[in-house]
Amino acid sequence: MTAPPQQTSGLAEERAAPVISPGPLVPIADFGPVDRMRGWIVTAVITLLAAVTRF
After folding, report:
1. First and final CA of the chain: distance in angstroms?
2. For FRET with 54, which of 8, 37, 46, 47 sits at 20 to 30 Å CA-CA?
3. Does residue 32 have a pLDDT over 60?
4. How far is CA 42 from the centre of its chain?
5. How many angstroms from the chain centroid is the CA of residue 48?
């Protein structure tokens, strides 16, 4: 099964997101640098809290 052809209205040209096949037609998650930085900050805070409360 393949994805149906894209229908463009001509108003705005959108870039096509790759889809994972053969499962459901869901676009691949695109995490930006802000999400990655936020994740590392949360990881550091949790690690710091764990280190402080351990002793």
Report:
1. 57
2. 37
3. yes
4. 17
5. 26
**Whole-angstrom distance, CA of residue 30 vs CA of residue 21:** 17
Exposure string (b/e) for 24-53, b if CB count within 10 Å is 16 or more? eeeeeeeeeeeeeeeeeeeeeeeeeeeeee
Which of 42, 5, 3, 43 lies closest to 23, judged by CA? Answer: 3
pLDDT of residue 6: 65
On the CB side of 34, CA atoms within 13 Å amount to 0
Tell me what pLDDT residue 31 has.
Answer: 73
Q: What is the pLDDT of residue 19?
A: 60
